[in-house]
Amino acid sequence: MQASFEDAIARSHPTGLRRAAVRTLQVNVGRRCDLACHHCHVESGPKRRETMDARTAARVLELLSGSPDVATLDLTGGAPELAPAFRDLVRGARARGRDVIDRCNLTVLFEPGQEDTAEFLAAHGVKIVASLPCYGPENVDRQRGRGVFERSIEALRMLNALGYGHEGSRLGLDLVYNPQGPSLPPDEKTLEERYREELRQGFGVEFHRLATLTNMPIKRFAHALERDGQHEAYMALLVNHFNAATIPALMCRHLVSVCYDGTLHDCDFNQMLELPLGAGARSIFEIDDLAELEGAPIATAPHCFGCTAGAGSSCGGALA
Question: Could you tell me the pTM of the whole model?
Fold first, then answer.
């Protein structure tokens, strides 16, 4: 019998998992990506064509204008930079005084048509959160494809040259680590120190901080677990390491996820499973201020154990 996440939450929060004030609007602008990583919960890749249209992008900016408490627009994909709406969303959010995060895979910066993307991001003060699942080539190329590590390092050097990642710089550059297989991430601070030493000494690369993420047992990673006969063991690992101390900081409490088609979800993982927003609103066209969602229930499922296991996991890294 599969463990119940709702029961695990109820032991410390009898009223269930509920929303706090929304601070971040996370928008998945499309599924297209130049990579097809083994762990990708979005199952994105070069052949995907789903993308946000101009009408939906304009509505995202309207919702941002109507939600004064939301400080950050967080753009993800696929490779968000490949979506036609990407730059309009960046410009619109910055014009409204909001911070913008670009969840960048680094290699996209060398794709045709992206030659000026790094300069565009720097000019608009966009924070970059870049996936780099190891500080050496073997593990990165195994997970993300041949030659990806080398191109990632080249991209990081280019971003450093633009001012990203240096101590005191306004141009934020964070890196993201996820395990190679069915295990929990190591201690975030200890791993960050190792990353900094290896990347600085080996490649002359600087960054601000490292975020460790747990692989979610959904979509492409779940298929790999099932193929290798490890799904049950991995779920048991997550359940047995449930940590109630992570609950106050769970990203679903402070973030709303928007699909490229405008549908609303409690997080990016729920979006990929097509779990609608627990609060009831189904799309960005049904709500005018995200503050309306405060106190509403959050939709959950067994994969949520991934965010509460060990030190916890979120788009910003460990939670506890």
Answer: 0.96
